[in-house]
Protein backbone atom coordinates (compact mmCIF):
# COMPACT_ATOMS: atom_id res chain seq x y z
CA UNK A 1 0.00 0.00 0.00
CA UNK A 2 2.97 2.34 0.60
CA UNK A 3 3.90 2.01 -3.06
CA UNK A 4 0.33 2.65 -4.16
CA UNK A 5 -0.22 6.06 -2.63
CA UNK A 6 3.23 7.19 -3.70
CA UNK A 7 2.44 6.14 -7.26
CA UNK A 8 -0.77 8.18 -7.18
CA UNK A 9 1.29 11.38 -6.93
CA UNK A 10 4.67 10.71 -8.54
CA UNK A 11 3.60 10.59 -12.25
CA UNK A 12 2.06 14.05 -12.11
CA UNK A 13 4.94 15.37 -10.03
CA UNK A 14 7.49 14.14 -12.59
CA UNK A 15 5.47 15.67 -15.43
CA UNK A 16 5.41 18.96 -13.52
CA UNK A 17 9.18 18.90 -13.07
CA UNK A 18 9.78 18.26 -16.78
CA UNK A 19 7.25 20.81 -18.06
CA UNK A 20 8.03 23.31 -15.24
CA UNK A 21 4.29 23.88 -14.68
CA UNK A 22 2.76 23.06 -11.32
CA UNK A 23 -0.79 23.00 -12.63
CA UNK A 24 -3.25 20.13 -12.39
CA UNK A 25 -6.74 20.03 -13.87
CA UNK A 26 -9.80 19.64 -11.68
CA UNK A 27 -10.59 16.12 -12.95
CA UNK A 28 -6.95 15.08 -12.58
CA UNK A 29 -6.96 16.57 -9.11
CA UNK A 30 -10.08 14.67 -8.08
CA UNK A 31 -8.70 11.40 -9.47
CA UNK A 32 -5.37 11.87 -7.73
CA UNK A 33 -7.04 12.91 -4.49
CA UNK A 34 -9.39 9.89 -4.55
CA UNK A 35 -6.63 7.32 -4.98
CA UNK A 36 -4.23 9.02 -2.57
CA UNK A 37 -6.91 9.32 0.11
CA UNK A 38 -8.06 5.71 -0.43
CA UNK A 39 -4.58 4.27 -0.04
CA UNK A 40 -3.70 6.42 2.99
CA UNK A 41 -6.96 5.57 4.78
CA UNK A 42 -6.62 1.88 3.95
CA UNK A 43 -3.06 1.80 5.20
CA UNK A 44 -3.97 3.23 8.58
CA UNK A 45 -6.75 0.66 8.99
CA UNK A 46 -4.59 -2.22 7.77
CA UNK A 47 -2.03 -1.34 10.44
CA UNK A 48 -4.78 -1.76 13.02
CA UNK A 49 -5.75 -5.15 11.57
CA UNK A 50 -2.11 -6.21 11.60
CA UNK A 51 -1.79 -5.11 15.22
CA UNK A 52 -4.77 -7.30 16.14
CA UNK A 53 -3.24 -10.22 14.23
CA UNK A 54 0.09 -9.80 16.01
CA UNK A 55 -1.64 -9.46 19.38
CA UNK A 56 -3.42 -12.77 18.90
CA UNK A 57 -0.22 -14.45 17.67
CA UNK A 58 1.79 -13.29 20.69
CA UNK A 59 -0.75 -13.40 23.52
CA UNK A 60 -2.80 -16.44 22.48
CA UNK A 61 -0.52 -18.59 20.31
CA UNK A 62 -2.40 -21.84 20.92
CA UNK A 63 -5.71 -20.30 19.85
CA UNK A 64 -4.28 -18.40 16.88
CA UNK A 65 -5.59 -20.72 14.16
CA UNK A 66 -9.04 -20.73 15.73
CA UNK A 67 -9.18 -16.99 16.38
CA UNK A 68 -7.65 -15.91 13.07
CA UNK A 69 -9.54 -18.24 10.78
CA UNK A 70 -9.61 -17.48 7.04
CA UNK A 71 -13.10 -16.08 7.50
CA UNK A 72 -11.94 -13.61 10.18
CA UNK A 73 -8.98 -12.60 7.99
CA UNK A 74 -11.35 -12.01 5.07
CA UNK A 75 -13.65 -9.87 7.23
CA UNK A 76 -10.68 -7.87 8.50
CA UNK A 77 -9.47 -7.28 4.95
CA UNK A 78 -12.93 -6.31 3.72
CA UNK A 79 -13.32 -4.01 6.72
CA UNK A 80 -9.98 -2.35 5.99
CA UNK A 81 -10.81 -1.56 2.39
CA UNK A 82 -14.44 -0.80 3.22
CA UNK A 83 -13.48 1.80 5.83
CA UNK A 84 -10.80 3.20 3.53
CA UNK A 85 -13.33 3.50 0.72
CA UNK A 86 -15.97 5.01 2.98
CA UNK A 87 -13.63 7.72 4.23
CA UNK A 88 -12.44 8.45 0.73
CA UNK A 89 -15.95 8.73 -0.68
CA UNK A 90 -16.92 11.07 2.15
CA UNK A 91 -13.98 13.41 1.48
CA UNK A 92 -14.12 13.29 -2.31
CA UNK A 93 -17.90 13.55 -2.39
CA UNK A 94 -17.88 16.68 -0.26
CA UNK A 95 -15.20 18.28 -2.41
CA UNK A 96 -17.18 17.53 -5.58
CA UNK A 97 -20.02 19.71 -4.27
CA UNK A 98 -17.79 22.76 -3.84
CA UNK A 99 -17.95 25.55 -6.40
CA UNK A 100 -14.82 27.33 -7.51
CA UNK A 101 -14.58 30.97 -8.55
CA UNK A 102 -11.80 30.74 -11.11
CA UNK A 103 -11.00 28.18 -13.79
CA UNK A 104 -10.65 24.48 -13.10
CA UNK A 105 -6.88 24.54 -12.63
CA UNK A 106 -5.16 23.96 -9.30
CA UNK A 107 -1.73 25.54 -8.94
CA UNK A 108 -0.10 22.52 -7.26
CA UNK A 109 1.52 19.31 -8.49
CA UNK A 110 -0.25 17.37 -5.74
CA UNK A 111 -3.94 17.72 -5.11
CA UNK A 112 -4.54 18.10 -1.39
CA UNK A 113 -7.69 18.99 0.48
CA UNK A 114 -6.57 22.29 2.02
CA UNK A 115 -5.57 24.03 -1.26
CA UNK A 116 -8.91 22.95 -2.72
CA UNK A 117 -10.80 24.37 0.24
CA UNK A 118 -8.92 27.66 -0.15
CA UNK A 119 -9.94 27.88 -3.83
CA UNK A 120 -13.64 27.33 -3.18
CA UNK A 121 -16.13 30.20 -3.39
CA UNK A 122 -18.73 28.83 -1.01
CA UNK A 123 -18.41 27.85 2.63
CA UNK A 124 -16.19 24.88 3.34
CA UNK A 125 -17.47 24.34 6.89
CA UNK A 126 -18.99 20.92 6.11
CA UNK A 127 -15.81 19.80 4.38
CA UNK A 128 -13.71 20.75 7.39
CA UNK A 129 -16.18 19.03 9.71
CA UNK A 130 -16.05 15.82 7.65
CA UNK A 131 -12.27 16.10 7.52
CA UNK A 132 -11.93 16.40 11.30
CA UNK A 133 -14.43 13.59 11.95
CA UNK A 134 -12.67 11.31 9.47
CA UNK A 135 -9.27 12.05 10.97
CA UNK A 136 -10.65 11.48 14.48
CA UNK A 137 -12.08 8.08 13.49
CA UNK A 138 -8.87 7.03 11.75
CA UNK A 139 -6.65 8.12 14.62
CA UNK A 140 -9.10 6.66 17.14
CA UNK A 141 -8.99 3.23 15.51
CA UNK A 142 -5.21 3.39 15.35
CA UNK A 143 -4.91 4.38 19.02
CA UNK A 144 -7.26 1.61 20.16
CA UNK A 145 -4.86 -0.98 18.72
CA UNK A 146 -1.99 0.39 20.80
UniProtKB/TrEMBL annotation:
Source organism of this protein record: Anoura geoffroy (Geoffroy's tailless bat)
Family matches, as InterPro entries: GPCR_Rhodpsn, GPCR_Rhodpsn_7TM, Olfact_rcpt
Gene3D superfamilies: Rhodopsin 7-helix transmembrane proteins
GO (cellular component) term, any one: membrane
Compartment annotation: Membrane
Signal peptide (residue range): none
Membrane topology, as annotated: Multi-pass membrane protein
Major localisation: membrane
Domain of life: Eukaryota
Protein name, per record: Olfactory receptor family 8
Function summary: Putative odorant or sperm cell receptor.
Listed GO MF terms: G protein-coupled receptor activity; olfactory receptor activity
Segments forming domain G-protein coupled receptors family 1 profile: 1-146
One Pfam family from the record: 7tm_1
Keywords: G-protein coupled receptor, Membrane, Receptor, Transducer, Transmembrane, Transmembrane helix
Transmembrane intervals: 23-41, 62-83, 125-144
PROSITE patterns per record: G_PROTEIN_RECEP_F1_2
